[in-house]
Amino acid sequence: MSGKILIIDPNAHRRGALCQAIQNSLYSCISANDIETADYSGVKGVLLSTDAPDTRNTIRAQLHDAKCPILILYSPNAVYDRANYFRAGAADVVEATCDLREILSRLRSAMRRATAAREVALRSGTTRALGFAEAGSTFAAKQMIHVLQVTGRTPPAVTLPNFGVQSVVFDDLGALGERQALKCLIIDVDRDAPRRVIPLLLDLRTHPATRYASLILRADPDILEHIRDALDCGADDIVGTDISNPELTHRIQIHQDHLRTNAILRESSIIGLNAAITDPLTGLYNRRYAQSHINLLLEDARSNGGSVTALMVDIDHFKSINDAHGHFVGDQVICSVAHTLKSAIRASDLVARFWGEEFVVILPNISPKDANTLAQRLRRKVSEINTDTTPIAITISIGISRFDTAELFESGLEHYD
Known about the structure:
Elements: E1 4-8, H1 12-24, E2 28-32, E3 43-49, H2 55-63, E4 70-74, H3 82-88, E5 92-95, H4 100-129, E6 144-149, E7 164-169, H5 170-179, E8 184-189, H6 194-206, E9 214-219, E10 237-240, H7 245-277, H8 287-304, E11 308-315, H9 318-325, H10 327-343, E12 350-355, E13 358-364, H11 368-383, E14 396-403, H12 406-416
Parallel strand pairs: 1-2, 1-3, 3-4, 4-5, 6-7, 6-8, 8-9, 9-10
Antiparallel strand pairs: 11-13, 11-14, 12-13
């Protein structure tokens, strides 16, 4: 990840060390002593020290419009409680004296969250521009937070008024995950468990029930430095056992918002993939999908001694239908034929629209006689179609081809053209 990072910190020594670490991580860096002299143009992330004057109000007033994440470097003499900075809009709050690697890890995470949020906003804008309605809001039950005890000790209690909290021991995690996908897991790490943290995170990130969950490590303050690398190995956050409930609530909410953002992006990607392989008029697969599908069928046929047959279907005199009745009726005819073809084939068969009024029906492992019988049945069913608006006699012509290789399939299509 690259981009320009702005550091606002009156402490020159700390500012220089941060700037050097950022540049070593392939970011560009600019810095300022105070808020008034800072240049925000083109900034992708901000490190803002609480030693800077009026830091809390600055987040709301000056940097909020920049649309970039703001990470607060919290000094021991800070005036405000850490939770107040989250309320003001901070993406994260970290001790100014902590390891530089942790600061960079948290900064990278905040920038990834911001990038994902911008992408969701962009895709939502495109969806609205296309005329699709936004999803309606629904009632949401209180979200359950699970507290995982890695060892046998009893961890400090977690009281979060905005969430339901349930403790779970490690041995019961698998059974719980089989019943539901977990949304947020607070993992208590004691002094005997730091070496187990990274393998545990890797396991959780590969398990279907916890793959997308927010994973927050909680440990005594004096052992946090031993698990900081977990931020780059699958953990969303690490916190001390002395964290206040308001701050923990804000941190959980930030990660749950990111969880929803990623879910929207995954769903959007699936929708985009479906759009890339689907004919928008009929809902059938398109030529791109059919060509890939027949390649797989041919590989399977060669391995198992099977066969692949294709029915090349063409609506007769379709141009005359369009000219006489208009494109609306023509589209209705295409959709009616598509529905008829799809409803008359086996589950293992596939029908796709190639272009215009032309379709292909792909039939794995069917005898020539059965293929011919199916073709005759399809012609009969199509001839029985009645359109809603205008009585039109609809007929189709079908060519039957048996293929051994994808090259023959392509050459057959060219001959069919």
